[in-house]
Specification:
This protein is mostly helical. Helices cover 84% and strands 0% of the residues. The mean pLDDT is 93.
Length: 211
């Protein structure tokens, strides 16, 4: 096969995105149980974000990609930013959990709901990245349609925390839930971008019935 420098550069961007994705999944998975390990992984994510940005700029400057390659590069740049922001929210969760551990705080039965919203956010993220990798707009639409379920779980946690916990503890508990909800929101943003790239349709402001 003839050597194609643009294709090789795209492969390098994709490989670094996959590495970054794996680290972000690790951070989400371990944010509640292994907060120190989660925080340590943040440095790698930040380094990869910079490397990917530099690769994107270099690829555009050197090869002047058009049409499909350009769309892929621009999408990669957007995903790169979303991955870094998702990692930031996992980092926030880990810091709140460390605070609880340091203070000896136990939120009791609410941990079950917190673990559930974590699993919901993780699933949204993993499926959103899969839809990006496979250009699967139907999967992306499913993620987009289900976003309200995570919102409902966040609201449930907020109400239960306010009703059953001392105010400072309730605020930290709600903060954890909101960070997981933001991870799901950012995953939904990825799904919206996938639909646009694959189908040329903007679904951001549409109702569930319209998509």
């Amino acid at each position: 096969m003839r050597f194609n420098p643009l294709y090789e550069s795209l492969k390098e961007i994709e490989g670094k995105l996959d590495e970054m994705y794996s680290s972000v999944v690790f951070m989400i998975d371990n944010s509640l149980d292994l907060p120190d390990e989660t925080l340590e992984r943040e440095e790698l994510v930040n380094r990869l974000e910079i490397e990917i940005d530099e690769l994107v700029v270099r690829t555009i400057a050197l090869y002047h990609p058009e049409a499909s390659p350009l769309r892929k590069i621009l999408m990669s740049m957007k995903i790169n930013n979303d991955l870094e922001r998702i990692a930031d929210h996992a980092e926030n969760v880990a810091r709140d959990v460390k605070h609880f551990k340091r203070k000896g705080v136990d939120i009791g039965a609410l941990w079950e709901d917190i673990n559930l919203i974590k699993d919901m956010a993780r699933r949204a993220f993993v499926e959103a990245y899969s839809s990006f990798k496979n250009k699967d707009s139907e999967l992306a639409k499913e993620i987009w349609r289900s976003d309200y379920i995570v919102d409902a779980m966040r609201d449930r946690i907020l109400k239960r925390a306010v009703d059953t916990l001392p105010t400072p503890v309730a605020l930290k508990t709600v903060s954890i839930a909101q960070n997981f909800e933001r991870i799901a929101d950012l995953s939904t943003n990825i799904a919206e971008d996938v639909v646009f790239i694959v189908e040329g349709e903007i679904i951001r402001h549409k109702s569930i019935e319209e998509v």
